[in-house]
Structure formats: structure tokens, C-alpha cells
Amino acid sequence: MLRAAAIAALLALVAAKEHYDLDGDGVVGIDEFAVVSFAEQGLSKGEIGEIVKVADRTADGILARDELQQAKSALERIAKEKGSEWIKDNDSNHDGHLSKEEFQKAVMKKVGLGHKDIADMWKMADKNRDSSISYNEAPMALYLIRTKSILEANKMLEKFDSDHNSRLSEDEAVLMADIAFDVGTEEALDAFERVARNEVEIGSSLMEGLLETMRESAIDNVEERIREVDSDGDGIVSFNELRKRFRKKKSSLLKKLFRKCDVNRDNVLDGPEWVTLTAEVAMLKKRKTKHDKVIHVHPHTSGGFRGAARDEEEFERRRKKREAEEKKEIEEEIIKMSAWDGLLPVREEPKEKEPEIALKNRVDPKFARFSELVVEDE
């Protein structure tokens, strides 16, 4: 029995080594471990940096078998601790897990998503299909939230980066806070200073924290904002009240936005849902892209067809293409934000040795050039 357990543990370790060995050279470097861990677990770069510094006892930049096991165990432990903390912070009825409603509210605190995105995340996170998120499922939920946060941060940076230098200045942050979150200048500056830490501008790696901070501030003060729209004084926003607020917007567009942001499908918008809608409206006037040049019309829409989408096949092709490009954006942003300068020890160049033949298609293309990536440090 003990021998079988030892064999199973050995096989698991061999599989882990192959999982982290991105370049297929037979060893796991600390940078390889860091990149894969950041992408899959969603821990901060500082947390992962501390893990590999402790695990790499020989300080040679390579994780031997026992060092890899130590790093992997530490990684899983920290991920579970963060997941447990997240569960406790959002478990309003204190039953030890998150219901669907609690999950929805927890997600909207961190990232502005609509009904479909949150529903998809729920299905992926609730692995055992018991209609709740347990402590064991929390790390996966946080990873899914992290990937969406990266994409949102990238889009917000692209929109409000007025000087096109791929960084957000203090003035640009104030403008973003006003337009996208209806947050005042003082609160915006306070959020920027906490995230920027004496820097005059921030890059994509710090945008996540800034957006989450501004969203929290917007949710905390949303009652005052809703009162400006809430004509019947019930503390929530109906579609008719929304239409009065945005008179210049087309009714069909407002219906689409209302449906998207009504996450719990109760036909009204509460505080977090209203904050999400505000950000969605702010993103309407975005830069022109190749997709904006085509009017996408569903073939079942009444009236004549316009633009290039003239039949159902063309419509489906364009929809799938947009979904694929969005997925690719998420993957690229994960890699762009995986910069480890100053957090990991310098890895010495290995001595020359006979080249090994790597298995075909062993390296995931999205990680193939991770060592050459340069982005902002946290």
C-alpha cells in the first residue's frame, strides 16, 4: 500500500515537472514556475516571487525535484488561503460557502461583468454542481475573475490613455473615475496614489487594482447616484427610469445594456449592477477598430439587412471570430503582466550541453517567448 502511494506521488511529481517545463529542456526554472503559477493561480507576482526564493535553496535558478514539490505545495496552500478569505468576506449568511447570489455580488465587487459572463464563470467554478462555491472551488473562481479583470484593465487603459503611451497618468485616472464610475476627483486621486505608490503613471499591471478600488468606491456611494435617477424612490433603477436618464441613447441599445447588467434577472438594477452599467455606457464611445467598421446585424432582425453581415452563416462567423480574439486578448494580457524583474533571483546561464530533442508541439505557444516579455512591475 505504501509502495503504491509512493509510486503515485512520484508520477504526480513527474507530471508537475512536465507541466512547468515550458521550454522542454528537462528542468524547471524559477521563471517558468512563476509564469505558469501566475497564469493559473492568479496570485500576485510578489507572492509567487517569495515562494520560489524560499524553495530554490541552492539559489541556482532551477527547481530540483524536492524544491519543485515544496514550491508547488506552498503555491496551493496560499491559493487556498486566499480562496478561503474570499469566501468568508462574501458569505453573507455565514454557511461556509457562496450561493449563486453571493457569488454574483462577489464578482461584481472585483470586475464589471454582465449576466452571461458571470453565469459562465459560475458553471466553471461550481465543479461538483451542488449550486454553491466551496473552499476547494474558490481558487478556480478567483482565477476566472482574474482573467476577466486583466481584459477589463486592458480595455480601460486603451480607452483612457489619451496620450497613447500605454500608461495611465493621474489626470487620465481622474477622467476615467468620473466617466466610467461616477467617482469624484478626491476619491479618484486617493485610489490612484494607493495603487501607484509614488509613481506618476501606472501600466497595465496596476490597472486591475485601480479599477477594483474605484469600483468599491462607486458601490459604496451608489445610493446617492441612484437617487438622481430613481424617480419612484424605491432604491433601484427600472428600465423606464434608465431611459429617462439616457434620453439620447437608442431604446434598443439601452434594452440590450439593461438586460446585460441585470445579473440576477429581477428586471431592475441594484447598486453593483448600476455601477457596471455606468462603466458599459462609458465604453460605448470607444476607439474605432476593424470590428466597428462593420454593422453587425442578426439575420432574424426585422427589416432589411445592412453592412457585411447579410446571412446567418456570416453572422455566426463574425461572432465566433470576435469571441476567439477576446480569448486571445486575455491570454496575451496574462503574459504581458508576468514580468518578474526584481522579484526573482538572477538565473545563471547553464553550461553548454548536448541539445535535447523536444517533443513536437510540447511548448504552449502563448508561453514560448515569456522570458523576453517586458512590462511594468507591480
TrEMBL record:
SUPFAM superfamilies: EF-hand. Residues 78-113, 217-252 form the EF-hand domain. PROSITE patterns: EF_HAND_1, EF_HAND_2. Keywords: Calcium, Signal. InterPro entries: EF-hand-dom_pair (IPR011992), EF_Hand_1_Ca_BS (IPR018247), EF_hand_dom (IPR002048). GO terms for molecular function: calcium ion binding. Residues 1-16 form the signal peptide. SMART domains: EFh. Pfam families: EF-hand_5, EF-hand_7, EF-hand_8. The keyword Translocase does not apply. This is EF-hand domain-containing protein. It comes from Pristionchus mayeri.
